[in-house]
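Hi,

I'm pasting everything inline rather than attaching a file, because the server keeps stripping attachments. The sequence lines come first, and each chain or strand is labelled.
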Amino acid sequence: MTLLEAAAALRRREISSMELTASALQRIERFNPSTNAVQFVIAEAAREQAKQADEELARGEGRGPLHGIPVAVKDLFYTKGVRTTGGSRLFEDYVPDHDATVVARLRAGGAVLAGKTGMHELAYGITSSNPHFGAIRNPWDRDCIPGGSSGGSGAAVAAGMVSMAMGSDTGGSIRIPAAFCGVVGLKPTYGRVSRYGAMPLAFSLDHMGPLTRSVRDAGAALNVIAGYDPHDETSSRRPAADYVPEIEPSLRGLRIGLPENFYFDRLDPEVDAAVRAAFRTAESRGAEIVPLRVPDIAAINTVARVILMAEASALMEAHLAQRDRFGGDVLSLLDQGRLLPATDYINAQRLRRASERAFAGLWSRVDCLFTPTAPITAPRIGETTVTVGSENEDVRLAATRLVRAINPLGLPAVSIPCGASRGLPIGLQIVGPPFTEALILRVAQALLPAEVPVPGL
Amino acid sequence: MSTDLKSDLKKDWKKIARASGLAIPDAALERVAQSLDALEAEFRPLVRALPPETEPAIAFRVSPGDAE
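And the predicted assembly:
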């Protein structure tokens, strides 16, 4: 059942929030030992919230589509009175005294917070094999990673524990787990969703967004969390829209960009075939496919890495004397960032501006772009390199190669499942101009009208 | 000519770390040096090609009211 279907059933009093919450908690209890998706279960408080939601709904005091729906948030969102670790030993006992804006808005919308999902340490990586809290496993194949850094959110939604979990995305951390776990992952435009109270990794690259099993559910979640927040000075004052697409949208008159360079250069052949099939589906729904050359994505990826390393190391510098409190991969990245000179950071931000201008020219020719989300399906846990085509590639660089550049550009992007290879999901990335979340979700809905399946666990 | 030669010199990350007073063990420095050399090889040509009039994408607002 999708989030919106559950919401409709709640309104019709066919089901109660207490029942939905009990079912979510049961699934977490049953499947968490094999997936490690949820780091902290908040059972008692969730039951209390569900009881309150049922009472409010009985009085006709509906607060919107999330009212009474059990959800989860990545364990980097501050939750008042509930531990928030960021997947790090540094913050293992940290209990915030306030909620992140996203959490506050979910609560105000009546959502029931059932748990906090596991993640890659400090959101700084894509495997979600956390050295402190254990490896998170992909529900489609538990020997594989779920992607990251929002790996717990991807796995929890894919396993049907909750119908929506919040993630964060600094270089692909919502879209990669969405692709590897076969769910919908939306990274909104920079400034569309408040970053306040979400542990930062890189101020100018961090984005917050939902992972769900249907496109319309992602729109419903965005409706609740989007909008100006005075606590986040990069928050946009542009009014939020209704992001839930109609059930069977037309793509007539829409121009979809087919990148002729970079994005299809080095892919698993089955990923290539599945993504090209998505173009044909879009064309059959009335869209016009426009082949075009995109700006130098490899260069933007490099720029993004310099910005990420500089900002992340600046943030964590005060903690870096405690080297034994970091996992090896994260510590290595933080060491690298400390060695970059300030001039590199400034020049990366200058290159970012140039890239932004180069990309802006694209939007006069097309309404959105289709690309693969990742060149591969989920790698196995512990793999450090993968073979793509005839080349060996570092797992982290391969997984982020097609998504990282979208972060410094601040563009909205959604990953939806578009096929499978050897039982593992393949992701399609849809990228639009700034603040076109409604458009890219409409396109996504046209391609993925139904709820994605839950694997047999 | 001499400028190009200088900019093509490889950076000595160990010396940079020590000069910066960073307590990064040698073994860790060995690991990061390789990654930083690779990043340097990709990043430096981009910087060299930047037109001087390109300003950074760093937002500074005199007051929060100036936000979009």
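Chain B touches chain A at residues 13, 16-17, 20, 22-24, 28-29, 31-32, 35-36, 39, 42-43, 46-47, 50-51, 54-59, 61, 64, 67-68 (CB under 8 Å).

If the labels don't parse on your end, tell me and I'll reformat.
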